[in-house]
């Protein structure tokens, strides 16, 4: 899906000179696909150990934040008791990852909703090779799937231990 | 006055300006998402501070308007590009990619290594990241290295031993793998077990099988509910026909 998003972005830039309206639509779709790529990557990686991930886009960041005080905190306590220093540090990393991932999905989902439901907010094309939607550059959005993957892996690293 | 205007007023009263349009979330009483550009003062502190943002959020909440701030750090791209260049320059053989995330005055570094790295390399990456971030007025938060594979922790290994003891190292490897954990080799596992033996957590019997020491059993603890490890152990014993 990440590839689709990148393709849509490239296409928007190609047709911009002659088809401004269509370019806007392709641009919006690019943001949409890039969000879904990050969201589905998260579900796919964490789904290996979490069976109760919510289906809603709105509820997912909240659910993730709950992991920090729930399962991760539990594993951290066990790690400390068992003298597992590495796992203890990994738990700290996982808590940071939870916060970062929740923030990423929240921000990205807001852009996605802007793309899908607020057509009056246009995609702004910059001379050259880029565009933005509501102050979010597509170059920034391109990083969402990769970042989500790293964050999710950092969380999975801990959740798999118990 | 519309909700939108109320929010803008509350923000400007505190000297804040949203980045782009404010986007309402879903539902009848939606949360309004406000992007804010944040920068850093000379001492590295975030401006506007989280406390200030929280205060504005609280004021609006008192009026029945729920808002959520999405922070955008104005120097984030530069810092990340600089650190990426630094680390890829010195460790191109070992790192596939890095990126940086920010919270308040700390920067967290996320590294995708090409393979499992040794401790010395990991230490080098820590040190270089810390030095670079110091130059731009930031403190290092965490450095996280992850690949597809998840090595078993001491906790996971001891937990398996508790349920299955006495258990041969090869069997421990199989059980860890069945849990989705990645054991590089039996040799690797043996070295881990040696370390646990030295720390007084396990004992190797004359048969070669491994058991937990009383100390380890004690620190792992137990629970008095249906998920109790004592039950798991009883079931494991029964399965083993003992």
Give a structural overview.
- Chain A is mainly alpha-helical.
- Chain A contains seven helices and three strands; from the N terminus they run H-H-H-H-H-E-E-E-H-H.
- Chain A is elongated and about 65 Å long.
- Helices cover 72% and strands 6% of the residues of chain A.
- Chain A starts with a helix and ends with a helix.
- Chain A has a three-stranded antiparallel sheet with strand order 1-2-3.
- Chain B is elongated.
- Chain B is of the alpha/beta class and 242 residues long.
- In chain B, a hairpin with a 2-residue loop joins strand 5 (95-103) and strand 6 (106-113).
- In chain B, the strands form three sheets. In chain B, strands 1, 2, 3 and 4 form a four-stranded mixed sheet that branches. Chain B has a three-stranded mixed sheet with strand order 5-6-7, with helices on one face. A two-stranded antiparallel ribbon of chain B has the order 8-9.
- In chain B, helix 3 packs antiparallel against helix 4.
- Chains A and B meet through helix 4, helix 5 and helix 7 of A and strand 4, strand 5, strand 6, strand 7 and helix 5 of B.
């Amino acid at each position: 899906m990440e590839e689709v998003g990148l393709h849509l972005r490239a296409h928007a830039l190609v047709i911009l000179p002659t088809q401004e309206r269509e370019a806007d639509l392709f641009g919006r779709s690019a943001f949409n696909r890039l969000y879904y790529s990050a969201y589905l990557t998260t579900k796919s990686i964490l789904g290996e150990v979490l069976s109760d991930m919510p289906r809603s886009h709105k509820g997912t960041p909240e659910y993730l934040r709950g992991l920090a005080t729930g399962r991760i905190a539990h594993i951290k306590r066990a790690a400390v008791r068992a003298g597992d220093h590495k796992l203890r540090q990994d738990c700290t990393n996982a808590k940071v990852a939870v916060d970062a991932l929740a923030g990423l999905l929240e921000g990205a989902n807001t852009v996605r909703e802007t793309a899908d439901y607020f057509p009056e907010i246009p995609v702004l094309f910059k001379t050259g090779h880029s565009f933005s939607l509501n102050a979010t550059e597509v170059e920034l959005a391109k990083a969402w799937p990769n970042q989500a993957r790293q964050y999710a892996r950092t969380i999975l690293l801990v959740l798999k231990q118990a | 006055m519309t909700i939108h205007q109320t929010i803008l007023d509350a923000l400007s009263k505190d000297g804040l300006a949203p980045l782009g349009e404010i986007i309402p979330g879903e539902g009848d009483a939606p949360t309004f998402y406000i992007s804010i550009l944040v920068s850093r003062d000379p001492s590295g502190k975030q401006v506007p501070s989280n406390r200030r943002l929280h205060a504005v959020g609280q004021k609006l909440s008192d009026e029945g308007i729920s808002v959520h701030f999405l922070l955008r750090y104005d120097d984030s791209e530069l810092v990340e590009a600089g650190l990426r260049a630094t680390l890829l320059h010195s460790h191109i053989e070992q790192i596939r990619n890095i990126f940086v995330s920010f919270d308040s005055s700390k920067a967290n570094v996320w590294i995708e290594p090409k393979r499992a790295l040794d401790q010395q390399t990991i230490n080098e990456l820590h040190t270089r990241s810390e030095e670079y971030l110091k130059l731009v007025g930031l403190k290092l938060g965490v450095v996280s290295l992850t690949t597809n594979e998840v090595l078993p922790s001491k906790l996971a290994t001891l937990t398996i031993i508790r349920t299955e003891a006495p258990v041969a190292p090869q069997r421990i490897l199989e059980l860890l793998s069945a849990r989705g954990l990645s054991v590089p080799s039996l040799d690797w596992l043996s070295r881990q077990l040696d370390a646990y033996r030295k720390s007084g957590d396990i004992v190797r019997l004359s048969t070669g099988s491994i058991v937990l020491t009383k100390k380890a059993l004690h620190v792992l603890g137990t629970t008095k509910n249906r998920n109790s490890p004592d039950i798991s152990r009883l079931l494991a014993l029964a399965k083993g026909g003992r």
